[in-house]
Amino acid sequence: MLKSILVLTVVATSAFAEEPSVRPNDNLVLNGIPPIPVSIAEKTRKFTESRQAKFASWNPSTRTMLILTRFADTAQVHLVKMPGGERKQLTFFSDRVAQASFPQENTDYFVLSKDIGGNEFFQNYRFDLKSGDVTLLTDGKSRNSSGIWSHHGKLLAYSSSRRNGKDSDIYVIADATKETDHLVAQVNSPGWEPLDWALDEKTLLVMQEISINQTNLFLVDVDSGKMSQVNPVNAAEKVAYGAAAFSKDGKHLYLTSNQHSEFQRLGRLDLKTNAFAPLTGNINWNIELFSLSPDGAQLAFVTNEDGISRLYLLDTASDQYAQIAGLPDVVILAEVLRCPDFVLLAGSVRRSSFRSRLTHRMLDRAVPAIHPRR
Questions:
Q1: What is the dihedral sign for C-alpha 142, 66, 333, 301?
Q2: Please, are residues 87 and 68 in contact by the beta-carbon 8 Å criterion?
Q3: Interatomic CA distance for residues 288 and 255, integer angstroms
């Protein structure tokens, strides 16, 4: 009886050893770890592989949205027409799409950003909704930001290293037409990125990132390229600014800043005096995202409260704000962006993309919850 058991054990062990095993990365040194059979890796894949739907952009006229999600190996652009509606895949690249956005006017195209093979030299492309044609807008070699659209037009401002492969100069392209692409402002370092357009489309708000603890804000004249620093020059305190946007009257900036605080607070900066006035001083959590309504009357912002995102709505006339009730405990992963009339607000959460009807305090899911692949 004992011999039979021993023989069976040896046979089973031998068969197990002959099964193909997972080959670790060459940089990983294994010591005392037995080979891991491929069959075990396949069985655990559904617990280690998951995907998310990331909100990308509103269509300004139809209220449909672009999202980024994957059904295979890379995130691609999908179109969603209604809450709970099916996703229509628009792009089929071998590389992931990092961002996609519509202009702030009704168009039959959007602009997307992607790199090749994960090299992080992102390029911008025009995607034609009618034909599905994809046109390269940048030079195909430099590193480019995805850019920001002007509020009432089709001007896209972005940064690019194309001049010398290092410095992040500011460029503007009109109506996603390559022939209109031109240099606006030349800088002498990497880490520059446009944040917002003034409503008159004559001035850009641009950020210079020096480190995680220090950033500078500049106003750029689009016609002349002249730059003027907004925050104090050579200040004793190093300040990190996050999101920033022009007020509707162009006299102020709404921004997040850790000035005189250990938290990123939402505040208003007077462009004439450069004085910063915090608006959320009694919230001892970081303000991570915000979006201003087109009429400037309301501002939605997101806090990170002990790892959970909370959505608030602020009245810009009174500076009073209140939390939007009824939302689940989620983590908002991507930028909260507005529909043109601000009745609908969209963002990406850990489980799905959502859109919230602020006027009715109701939550509609535009994309079903994502579960691990089976």
A1: positive
A2: no
A3: 10
- CA distances from residue 135 to 99, 111, 126, 132 in whole angstroms, order as listed: 15, 9, 5, 10
Q: Which residue has the tokens 């969209």?
A: 346
Which two tokens mark 327? 């939302």
Average pLDDT of span 180-208: 97
Q: Which residues contact 146 (CB under 8 A, 6 or more apart)?
A: 98, 99, 101, 111, 113, 122, 124, 158
As given in the structure block, the two tokens for residue 37 are: 């059979």
Name the nearest CA neighbour of 226 among 188, 187, 196, 197: 187
**How would residue 10 be classed by pLDDT, with cut points 50, 70 and 90?**
very low
Cβ density class 276-303: b for 16+ within 10 Å, e for less: bebbbeebeebbbbbbbbbebebbbbbb
CB atoms within 10 A of CB 314: 21
Q: Which residues on neighbouring strands pair with residue 345, listed in sequence order? A: 338, 356
pTM above threshold 0.85 = no
Confidence (pLDDT) at 60: 83
Question: What is the sign of the dihedral through the CA atoms of 276, 277, 278 and 281?
Answer: positive
Chain centroid to CA 241: how far? Answer: 16
CA–CA distance, 281 with 138 (Å, rounded to integer): 42
Residue 10 Rama label (left phi>0; alpha psi -120 to 50; beta): alpha
Cα 268 from Cα 261, distance rounded (Å): 15
* Residues 319-346, mean pLDDT to the nearest whole number: 68
**Residues 195-225: pLDDT tens digits?**
999 999 999 999 999 999 999 999 999 999 9
155, 174 contact by CB (below 8 A):
yes
72-81: Cβ within 8 A, 24+ apart: 75/51, 77/110, 77/112, 77/127, 78/53, 80/353, 80/366, 80/367
- Written as six digits, the tokens of 320 are 């009073």
The answer to whether the beta carbons of residues 194 and 158 sit under 8 Å apart is yes
